[in-house]
Amino acid sequence: MNPTLTTVPATAADIPELVSFVNSVYRGETSRQGWTTEAHLLDGPRIDADALAEMLQAPGAVLLMGRTEAGELVGSVYLQLQAEAMYLGMLSVRPTRQGGGIGRLLLEAAHAHARELGCTRMKITVIAVRHELLAWYERQGYQRTGETVPFPTDPRFGIPRQPLTLLVLEKPL
To answer: Which of 63, 113, 130, 152 counts the most CB atoms within 10 A of its CB?
Structure first.
């Protein structure tokens, strides 16, 4: 079944709903209902209101919210223009709706947005020990670049339970 999804850019008014949503996808008990949880790797929140506000105000940034026909927020994805690349981060799908094509639809919307802005490639970072997530992105056409990035030390993005590294992946558009 292909879900029907409408994507709209988030505004400052959406921050409280998005903070709750993103944290429920990545951390805590609710996140464990889906396969993309990070609760076993990190303590604390995935995002807070101040950090999300900063992200939305960054130059060339947008957070697309995916809503059902009934208006339910079921997914979101953060995008930030970086020269000829579009950085994609914080792809979030409601845990109880994972595996139903919403993530793929959000990726398609992200790719379309990037192409509209003249980007020639997408860029993402994924925690190196998230093998199932890396495999999913690779099935979507993303390739490992060999580049790594240290995991952020700001506790607003979570407190690692073990040393973590981010792998950089890219996809030509």
So the answer is: 63
Instruction: Give residue 3's pLDDT.
Output: 67
Give the pLDDT confidence of 107-160 residue by residue, as tens digits.
Answer: 999 999 999 999 999 999 999 999 999 999 999 999 999 999 999 888 888 889
72 domain residue, yes or no: yes
Provide the mean pLDDT of the chain. Answer: 93
Q: Is residue 75's pLDDT more than 90?
A: yes
CA neighbours closer than 13 Å in the CB half-sphere of residue 124:
26
Residue 152 lies inside a defined structural domain of this protein: yes
Q: Enter the tokens of residue 170.
A: 């890219």
- What average pLDDT does this structure show over 97-111? 95
What is the number of domains present in the chain?
Answer: 1
Q: Report long-range pairs for 137-145 (Cβ below 8 Å, ≥24 apart).
A: 137/169, 138/169, 140/104, 140/107, 140/171, 141/171, 142/169, 142/170, 142/171, 143/169, 143/170, 143/171, 144/168, 144/169, 145/169, 145/170
Domain limits at 37? Answer: 6-172
CA 47 – CA 173 distance, rounded (Å): 29
Say how far apart CA 20 and CA 31 lie, in whole Å. Answer: 12
**CATH code of the domain in which 142 resides:** 3.40.630.30
